[in-house]
Fold these 4 entries.
Entry 1:
Amino acid sequence: MTTLVPASALSELNPLPRLLMGPGPINADPRVLRAMSAQLLGQFDPQFREYMRDTQALYRGVFETTNAQTLCIDGTARSAIETVMVSLVEPGDRVLVASFGRFGQLKAEIARRVGAEVRVIEAEWGTVFDIARIEAEIRAFSPKLLACCQGDTSTTMLQPLAELGALCRRHGVMLQVDATASLCGTPLPVDAWQIDCVTGALQKCLAGPSGIAPITLSDALCDVVMRRRHIEEGLRPADYRPGAGRIIPTNYFDLAMIIDYWSERALNHHTEATSMLYAARECARIFLQEGHAAVYARHALASRAIVSALEAMNLRVFGDQANKMPNVTGIWIPEGVSGDRVRSAMLDEFNIEIGTSFGPLHGRIWRIGAMGYNARRDAVLTTIAALETVLAGEHHRFTRGAGIDAARAIYQQG
Ligand SMILES: Cc1ncc(COP(=O)(O)O)c(C=O)c1O
């Protein structure tokens, strides 16, 4: 049989070096790419087990937690969200989702697929929840789990979380936080804020590729999951007793088996995604070497520079500014300007990617991200300069140079 392989498919991989200034993914820190090119190892190699232990310790530092079960799920961010839900929630359990954007909807969707009784409360896109509203819903619904985003990238909003964990503990509710887009861009001290589970990703503020998701889990949450522990045939130790709880209805995302795999017992599960583990380890090292406070300040500075530039360019920033994510900024697309044409010109002429959003905001806002490796002065100034040129071509009314001057002034003030 002859298979027709087009010549283009045989050409060498050589993507244009884009500057990724959208809502993520972003450009990886070159150190991460170098770490990923290290030679492969098997997951039972003593060197590799040490890298796994290092990675756990590093992410305890990132998450500011002592949680023993701090590890990585092989898959993109939603794989970690799904792993936790499918392993914790049983059909008929109540799950409350506090949704303020598309990624709140994602958690409701996953919980429904797991068979939970799901109640979704919504905050208008561009706003976040008042904690009293969440408390009233918890009282009325008595959920097993409350799930929400810290930062919902689709709306660029950041839910304040400092009080939420304590509130959930008072009511006997577990709290699952999706910090895919906010982890390492803004504070998230997991133990101090009493959060049972946080899931993250590398491709935003951690300056790495998507494909592996760091997570941290409280002992209380793990106890519930471990009651459902059923070890796969062929791996069962002599003293094996299956958990009393219902079997977790997935093999790949079975958190009990994944915990066993990461433990000193090293029970086999999947073949580790070696290069992704190297990436996760390097991302955490880079973050911790710079330090929590310095990284958060770098993201906040980039945010101030971008907002100030946009306002100087006669553009309107989207959403409640008091609760804006520092690493992503939404901008109303001005009347008479083609949002798609602007994004295409940015990409085709300047090699800069910016985003739009989803659902009701699709085509109505742009989103500019400055996060991780790209939360840098040069990346921000280059993006603003290009946007000014493109918007002038669209006959948007503003003073040429005002945006770039405003952004530079913020950086000069520091
Ligand atoms: C807040 C949030 N949650 C979940 C996801 C899903 O992540 P992934 O595409 O890595 O599965 C994203 C992706 O952008 C996100 O921003």
Entry 2:
Amino acid sequence: MSTAPNVVMYSTAFCGFCQRARGLLERKGVDIQEIKVDEDAGEREKMLKRSGGRRTVPQIFIDERHVGGYDELAALDRTGELDKLLNLKNDVKTEG
Ligand SMILES: N[C@@H](CCC(=O)N[C@@H](CS)C(=O)NCC(=O)O)C(=O)O
């Protein structure tokens, strides 16, 4: 039996890359804990610390592993690594 991963995405309200990352993760059927850093300066500081100083959004973490932004998420999807991190079987649609 596989367990659902903890997926955290730091984002802002107007962010195309966040929308794309959200769409990809939603297609995978996983729950996302979204943290809006434009509404909370303390969370923005936390994002900076956890990501080693990355300032762009989104910043995505899967079970404490720092994935990075949308580009890195999509790259992991193309290699099939994302499904492994999300504990998914191989029948999930990948990014076109
Ligand atoms: N390559 C990054 C690009 C992320 C990006 O440029 N995000 C924009 C918002 S959609 C941003 O954070 N802009 C503010 C900045 O560059 O400081 C990714 O794939 O996530």
Entry 3:
Amino acid sequence: MKSEADRGFLILARVCEWIGITLTFTVPVLVLGLVQCELNTGAAWLTIALGALAGYVASDWLSGMVHWAGDRWGTEKTFMLGPTIVKPFREHHSDQKEITRHNFVETNGNNCMGTTVILVFSLLLPEEGLIGLFLRVAAVGLCFGLFATNQFHKWAHLDAPPLAIRLLQRLHLILPADHHAKHHQAPYDRDYCITTGWLNPLLRKVRYFEVLEWAIERITGAAPFRDTTSSPAVAGGVAVDGSLA
Ligand SMILES: [Zn+2]
Ligand SMILES: [Zn+2]
């Protein structure tokens, strides 16, 4: 049974999520519209392609950083970040299908509040020349990837995604289910990137998160949380070895 305060908080959160979604779809028009650059050149179109790719890759890295922070640091009671990041990620380990029951706003509203902040700050980026074009397109690409992260993550947990989604997963343009399934094994300490998962092999190879954890432990003395929740190693109906579960 939810208290009045809980209900009030939920309504406020939903209103903020709607505002975030609306701004995420409208502010990019302003960010890109302010670029003062000749767009009818090959260099401009190459800059746009590279900027979009850079932003999309950066969103995969940022998704990994936020996911890693939620999985490994703090508790559900940590100020602000506990209920918004730590709790959802850790509950997701024990009930990985819960995310598939979220509607569009529940799935994407949270991230849109973050992308709105990035988009507003990106209005301060240079407006002129190819560098300005690259930075602004990269900012919009980053926000598109962040906006879509929870949606891609949700699709990776669906038992029977629509054909178009399966195709995007098969082409590895978005997070594939069998790739993400490798994260869902206790102690949930690998493959944190959940937009496309493109960076996971590289970050694993250079032991990126292990080095960060070692450094944080050395500096603060705090040890990372180790989740021993046993959960079937299945995502999207696909087992970690890629076979159908
Ligand atoms: Zn996790
Ligand atoms: Zn997951």
Entry 4:
Amino acid sequence: MITIICAEGGSSINGLKKSIEELGEKCEILFLSADNLQIDQTFNIDSDIIHSRCGIGEYHDKLTLFSWQVLNLLEVENHIFINSLKTIYNSADKFKTIKLLSKNNIETPKTGLIRDYDDAKSFMSKNNIYYPVIVKNCFSKCGNGVKLVRNDAELKEASKNAIWYGTTIQEYVEFGDNGVYKDIRVLVVDGEVVGGYRRVSSNFITNLHQGNKVELLKINDELSELSIKCAEAIGGQIVGVDILPSKEGYKVLETNTAPGTKGFRELGINVDKKIAKCLINHKKI
Ligand SMILES: Nc1ncnc2c1ncn2[C@@H]1O[C@H](COP(=O)(O)OP(=O)(O)OP(=O)(O)O)[C@@H](O)[C@H]1O
Ligand SMILES: [Mg+2]
């Protein structure tokens, strides 16, 4: 039995369940929002492998601690997770991701974890970074917590109480061309690239949640090697890698351990089957 854990449903989750069942394996979805869910210290589930589509991230300005706690108590019950909870955290905390990637010699935007405005200013001067800069919350999702900061007054506002929020300042990577912004999403499953696309936006925030479109991308060797290296750096089996194509070359922005499959479906690429196979194979190990 493969269990998919999620907060709410969605097309990526249903597509994956269907693919697992088509391959002859049982699959259940544990909805953390279900009415009949009751968690006490004896809570456990009957499952051979868990694939979590939730983790720790910001939702309605708060961290999703309930989801994270449920996953952690299931880990106490010795369940196997693909991706592991360590990997989910490595990817959820955007600053840890940047640290892991740069430790593995992968190009990322220069990033600082800040406590306040003074930290932000000293990061800029030490790294010769000028406005505009990006200020974002390490756990934010769907492009919601990302701010483009243009001057000292905006930086003061964006860095207020930063010490309490896991705030980062980051060099702004220019990747727009005549008002069109295209970045890259590559999906790596079990150390292999299974597909990729460009996210096309009229704004530097390219998230599909913001209504942006996708465009088919032929993945060259450089992108392929880079993406596989990123998945390895965070220790993930199922990893979406987000890459900004800058004038100085590719810069990896972040990774995602519950990558959506909607973009691939729009392009007629079935990645659910590959993810399903990966989960079934890990169950057998
Ligand atoms: N340093 C940067 N330079 C240029 N654009 C950026 C930068 N940081 C973020 N962006 C833009 O903002 C978008 C959202 O930022 P990011 O991916 O860091 O967080 P998120 O998408 O909110 O998190 P998640 O993908 O986990 O939901 C990116 O996809 C990119 O388009
Ligand atoms: Mg993102």
